[in-house]
Amino acid sequence: MASNEYPITLTTFPRLGTKDDYIQPYYPPSGAALRSQFVPDEIANPHIRFPTLAGNIRSRRGRKVELNVPVFKDTNTPEPFNDPTVNYDLHNWPEDDDVRNGAAKEGHVYMDAMAFGMGSCCLQITFQAKNMTEGRKLYDQLSPLGPILLALTAATPIYKGFLVDTDVRWNQIGNASRYASNSTYLSQDPRLRKEYLDPDLIVDEEIKKRLIDGGMDELLATHFAHLFIRDPLVIFSEDLEELDLNKADHFENLQSTNWQHMRFKPPPPEKDDIGWRVEFRSMEIQMTDFENAAFSIFIVLVTRAILSFDLNFYIPIQRTTENMETAHARNAVLDRKFYFRKDPFSPRARRPHPQSSTNGEVSSATSSAVNTPPPSPPLKPVESEYELMTISDIINGSADGSFPGLIPLVESYLNSVNVDVETRCFLATYLDLIRKRANGTLWTGARWIREYVASHPAYKHDSVVSEEICYDLVKAVEEMSVKEGKHGSVGWELLRGKNTKSSTPTWFTTPLIFDLNGAHTAAILPNSYTFTSGSQIRSSISSCTFAICSTKTPIVQKRGTIGGGGQSDIPPARMQYFSKSADDFAFNAARKPCMTVMMASSSGDGGEHIGVMGRGSGDNIVHHTLQIRLNNGYMTRG
């Protein structure tokens, strides 16, 4: 790359489609394939498949793609708003009549090419299942999560140089009828009720019958018969010369031009090392590698929890479609609620207990009952199985404990497998990002971009993202991708949360309460903290032990003694001791640069806690303080 080029990960360039010189070398719009008045044909991949795809979509529709996104109405936004970039006097192609026939809607930003929709970038994860049954299960159970992760990863508040009133890209892609949320469930799970299926699903009945006659079950036949209601958009002439049954090119040609937020992919017949795969396709690309890694790993861990705990997230498909629409709202992650299943755990049928005679044998009178399963309890109405929840409830668990939360389920899975301490700490940083993004401590990318534009000196509160603002925004994203919001740098609002940065050491004080009637008493801090190397910790009492430990299996174990005496009787395994001095306890600079400590009571609930252990005698409760000093570091508290 040239010295002035840098790879960044935005869903779409903020001023794509303007008259700026943002493409080098410059190409004029209104080419023969796209016939767009905003973007040139050269913006598409030069492989013949892509201009042919765009041209065929336009030809079949009889007009260009019509994308209208509601503009964000700021204090100085014109009312009514009519997209000022639209040229109503262009006469290069017959499709130029589209705007004269009402294609551009009032109050909306108008775009006329696939580059604005399917040209967007996303974070797409593909899982390979161990067999078809597992793949079908993952396809079904991940489907209701699509809208939730779409809202959590929202990062698209600007189109064609205007702030818009949506936060995500999906509807701009979904403007094409082949691009939509999921339409089918596939698994032969007995928990799949017919009420969950789409009653208005369109299928090719002839193809469905042929598939069933060939041995395919009805659910899978319905899925593929739905794909086959459409013709392929691109066919290569050489593929028509002969039919090679050892290849799946024709099927993949059709499958790959049906875009839904999940995709079920059979193994290619010509490759033995590729199995049944499931694609999770709804998430928006994030601006930093850390965020992209966090969401990628999170959804992988969710699949492990689904399979390990046999989780059930089924809701009616129509509700998932509604959720996809809800996810488009500005700040939907905090301001909207989503339909989600209330109980993710499968009901377990009770095993019959045979009645034994006095000699221990099962009596003949009960033998038939032993072999007859008990009747299933009557099913409740489908509407009682789900409710509207906040994303924080779905991710972190509800305050009343009625829904466990995806992160606690993932953590339960991690507790059940052998994960080394270092890996668990890395995973904790990723899960912490997801947790705080869901509860609002951290911003979404869309909110950060909006706030950046709103606070820019050149912004006139008229919804226009000028070339100057766009340049500074992209430079800020470049810096963020390197520094990742550390030490108060650009992007800390969506990566680190509220932080304290000071060039001089600062002491933060929190109360500690010791009941000296006991030989050893733990004083627990009320919140969670993150420390960097170089931080120090001290207590107002002359002798005590500082420890970070778990009331169950240790995950993070750090311990040291302040002063000359005092030793804890709680000896967690794998303790690591650090240097000590008369007045304060210094973290070892060689350790990992960051450690998050979750606070909990000492009642044995399994959380980590940080506390000071005191030894003494007397009848009084003594109040002391614990102080934390930050040396060239930062601390978050929440």
UniProtKB/TrEMBL annotation:
<keyword id="KW-0317">Glutathione biosynthesis</keyword>
<dbReference type="GO" id="GO:0005524">
    <property type="term" value="F:ATP binding"/>
</dbReference>
<dbReference type="GO" id="GO:0006750">
    <property type="term" value="P:glutathione biosynthetic process"/>
</dbReference>
<keyword id="KW-0547">Nucleotide-binding</keyword>
<comment type="similarity">
    <text>Belongs to the glutamate--cysteine ligase type 3 family.</text>
</comment>
<dbReference type="InterPro" id="IPR004308">
    <property type="entry name" value="GCS"/>
</dbReference>
<dbReference type="GO" id="GO:0017109">
    <property type="term" value="C:glutamate-cysteine ligase complex"/>
</dbReference>
<keyword id="KW-0067">ATP-binding</keyword>
<feature type="compositionally biased region" description="Polar residues">
    <location>
        <begin position="354"/>
        <end position="371"/>
    </location>
</feature>
<dbReference type="GO" id="GO:0004357">
    <property type="term" value="F:glutamate-cysteine ligase activity"/>
</dbReference>
<dbReference type="Pfam" id="PF03074">
    <property type="entry name" value="GCS"/>
</dbReference>
<comment type="pathway">
    <text>Sulfur metabolism; glutathione biosynthesis; glutathione from L-cysteine and L-glutamate: step 1/2.</text>
</comment>
<keyword id="KW-0436">Ligase</keyword>
<feature type="region of interest" description="Disordered">
    <location>
        <begin position="345"/>
        <end position="382"/>
    </location>
</feature>
<protein>
    <recommendedName>
        <fullName>Glutamate--cysteine ligase</fullName>
        <ecNumber>6.3.2.2</ecNumber>
    </recommendedName>
</protein>
<dbReference type="InterPro" id="IPR014746">
    <property type="entry name" value="Gln_synth/guanido_kin_cat_dom"/>
</dbReference>
